[in-house]
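Progress narrative, work stream C.
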Amino acid sequence: MILKKAFDHSGGLYHFRFHELKLKKLNNGFFGLNYYLNDILKECPDDYFLKGPRGSSLKFKLPELNMHQIKGHEVSELTEKGLDFNGKRFKSNHMKVQVFMLENDSNTVAMEIPIWLEPDEIDNFNKIFKEEFPLTGHIDLLRIEDNKIWVWDYKPKAFNEKYAATQVFFYALMLSKRTGIDLNNFRCGYFDEDYAFIFEPKKELLDNPELSGF
């Protein structure tokens, strides 16, 4: 039911898992997502994750971002339960929250998903990242709700985050490229047990002249 594989990327283990039955039930035509999650179990360009820019290290803000702050969002409630329920099962708060949601939330389909963006997949890659190697990352959680793919990142102090939206935006963009699913079908968010911050990723953000480097 839950398929998993540990990836040794950038000096740490990332415990990729996805719920096969929930994914089949919820994907509503997102066949590229199903294919990608199954395929990454068999083959992943691990060398990409050992060099080049990482989504979690991006230190610039996205311009003209329409962010919504929500207190008491469903993912926040699930976070609180996960931290309590898995208190002795895992040392990492990330694992406590991620595994609880994957096992108990009907909309959560995957966690710690490896993703990447090739330099030739967007026009201004070198301008933004000033690198020749692919951008990489690992998505904390994927949920499917209202026929949208939600890319979520757990941030223990979400209210104080400066660049989390940038990270999650590029996570959605990377997954869009990897699955062939249009970015319009994605939604983004980051959260803790108190607040969730959500927004719609838009392709136009990549064309903004203010978006350059970090």
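Work stream C, second folded protein:
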Amino acid sequence: MDWGLGHVSRTIPIIKNLLKRGHTIITCGNENIKTIYKEEFKSLKHIDFKGYNPKYSRGNNQGLAMIKQSSKFFNL
């Protein structure tokens, strides 16, 4: 998903740990996310997913910002 690249960066150590344990990993996300994963994990399969393209509030009211755009989260 495209909720920010911080989410992707936090998954990298988790993916490394799962790979060490022998798990098969498939990543998913938009082009920016794919680029980060491909730099870190050359051989992982990636599924392209456009995502929601959320808009964040300039202030502190993120909840209201998400409610205002909630229809696009359900219309993929």
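The radius of gyration is 15 Å. No further action is required on this item.
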